[in-house]
Amino acid sequence: MSVADDGGSSGRLRRELGLPAPGDLRRCLSALASDGSLLARSLEYRFDKGPLEGHPLGNLLLAGLASAGGDFQAAITEVARLVGAVGTIYPATTEIVTLEASSDSGPLRGQVTIERAAGIRDLRFDPGEPKAPAEAVQAIADADQVVIGPGSLFTSVLATATVPQISEALQATSAQKVYVANVANDRAEARGFDLAAHLDAISDHGVPIDLVLANGASPGSEGERRSRTVAGYQVVTAQMAAADGWGHVPAKLGHALADVHAAARY
């Protein structure tokens, strides 16, 4: 997950405590946590007054543990244990990084600035070669399937996949690499992008993809899937959209990922 967020609660904690941004990691912990945990249900609780206004409890918990123990990854692991999270979460880097990019309006610096821009290209980091955790690199090497996305194209997907050692691991792994397309276009940084434009940007940044999984109305039964080619990539479509029209139904996405992995084995 990206740790380059410089806005909101994450940006404040970065500036005040000198820590990587915890927001995306908190959201992953919330998604993977046990439903029966009071702490898990409280990670997204956001204080609405006083000096803590705007901070989610999960961000403060990660920041406090990282500050007390001096180890950001250990803080993530401990919160995962406390909330009964399924799986292991690694940041793309534990260094404090700033996103930079070029655009039609000139150079951009900072995730919030990039989120609000248009015509973005050439995403990069400052410092330019942030290191990835060895555990994250090894997890990619050991995987049977690597899922890239969904998420904001530049500030989430590419901000993770283009960290140099993560990019190298993606190039080297024999795992099936699946890009999960967003159900709807981004509201900001990739507004107006169709699927082909997303795939062109991913290709331009050197991220390898074997297959694209996209939401799409399929003929016949709900479970039926079909394939087409977009921007040179095989795209498998399945009905996975949540009722809000923006996200995926996790169970349907999980079944679709399992199906494309099984199909690749034969």
Sequence of strands across the biggest β-sheet:
4-5-6-8-7
Helix content: 25-40%
Main sheet characteristics: 5 strands, mixed
**Parts with pLDDT < 50 across at least 5 consecutive residues:** none
Give average pLDDT, whole number. 91
Please, could you describe this protein's structure?
The chain has a five-stranded mixed sheet. It has two domains: 75 residues, no CATH class; 130 residues, no CATH class. Helix content is 40%, strand content 14%. The protein is an alpha/beta fold and 266 residues long. Helix 4 crosses helix 5 and helix 7 runs parallel beside helix 9. A hairpin with a 5-residue loop joins strand 1 and strand 2. The chain is built from eleven helices and eight strands. The model has no long low-confidence stretch (mean pLDDT 91).
SSE layout and pairing:
Elements: H1 8-17, H2 23-32, H3 38-42, H4 57-69, H5 72-82, E1 98-102, E2 108-109, H6 111-115, E3 121-126, H7 134-142, E4 145-148, H8 153-161, H9 164-172, E5 176-180, H10 195-204, E6 211-215, E7 226-230, E8 233-238, H11 250-264
Parallel strand pairs: 4-5, 5-6, 6-8
Antiparallel strand pairs: 1-2, 1-3, 7-8
Helix pairs in contact: 1-4, 4-5, 7-9
